[in-house]
Design brief:
This protein has 261 residues and is α/β, with parallel strands linked by helices. The chain contains eleven helices and eight strands. Strands 3-2-1-4-5-6-7-8 form an eight-stranded mixed sheet, sandwiched between helices. It is elongated, with a radius of gyration of 21 Å.
């Protein structure tokens, strides 16, 4: 089996790296990208750069990882038929891909930044005509990049906001906590590492106990203690409402992008 990849940027290369980690022979991965840097990166993965889209005709599955705004130009050159296409084009629905590329078998995937280190969260939605054995294979391939969740396509804007944009929201929290600690006298490097590891450890603990975050939070919130004092400020400043608003704003922007706005 040969796999194709159109676009070998940060996310395309990350997913291919995940494919390889599941046992795919890198020499069975053909990469089409006009960027010289992308071609060199593909070679460093032992993948096979190709000069044209038509060279992907021999592939069974093709990952399309270009920017959404490049879909029109890609469609102008696309002549591949009877392929399974895995698309990570944000905001582009399966029906739009079907119309643009004249293809029938489409797998829509929404990965996020941590997929680059195999710790991603990936939402996936399959066309109804994907055969069960092909579906199982694609799920296995995607699991090389992180946790995979089969989600109805109507929820993809919410997924984009949560797992796609979510890392930026969490990074802002880490940045703010670091700044506050520096203001209290901690060295910047130490503060940043402690804030990062605090978030990482808390997330792993939450997963391990499988409890609601409010219940876990209560375990470290003593009456009249330091945590209670800090949480009171966060509530007074509207931190909870701000995060809810950020998710909803990002989801709404995703809906606008899917309409070309």
């Amino acid at each position: 089996m040969k796999l194709g990849c159109v676009g070998f940027g940060a996310m395309g290369s990350a997913l291919v790296k995940g494919f390889i980690s599941t046992g795919v022979n890198p020499q069975d991965v053909l990469v089409y990208d006009s960027s010289k840097n992308a071609q060199e990166k593909a070679l460093s993965y032992n993948c096979m750069p190709v000069d044209s889209l038509n060279s992907l005709e021999q592939c069974d599955i093709i990952l399309v990882a270009v920017k959404p705004q490049n879909l029109k130009s890609l469609a102008a050159d696309w002549q591949l038929r009877n392929k399974i296409v895995i698309s990570i084009l944000a905001g582009i629905k399966k029906e739009q891909l079907k119309e643009a590329l004249k293809i029938e078998k489409i797998v829509r995937v929404m990965p996020n930044m941590p997929a680059q280190i195999g710790k991603g969260v990936l939402a996936v939605n399959f066309s109804f005509n994907i055969e069960p054995q092909d579906k199982d294979l694609i799920l296995k391939l995607l699991m090389g990049s992180g946790g995979v969740y089969e989600i109805e396509e109507k929820h993809f804007d919410a997924v984009t906001a949560l797992s796609g944009s979510g890392p930026a929201f969490l990074l802002l929290a880490i940045e703010a906590m670091t700044f506050g600690s520096v203001a209290e006298g901690l060295p910047a490097g130490v503060a940043l590492e402690m804030a990062t590891k605090t978030m990482l450890g808390t997330a792993e603990y939450l997963l391990s106990v499988n409890e609601h975050p409010a219940k876990v939070r209560d375990l470290i919130t003593s009456p009249q203690g330091t945590t209670a004092a800090g949480l009171q400020v966060l509530e007074e400043k509207g931190a909870r409402a701000a995060y809810i608003g950020a998710i909803r704003a990002a989801a709404n922007r995703g809906r606008e992008l899917s309409k070309g706005e």
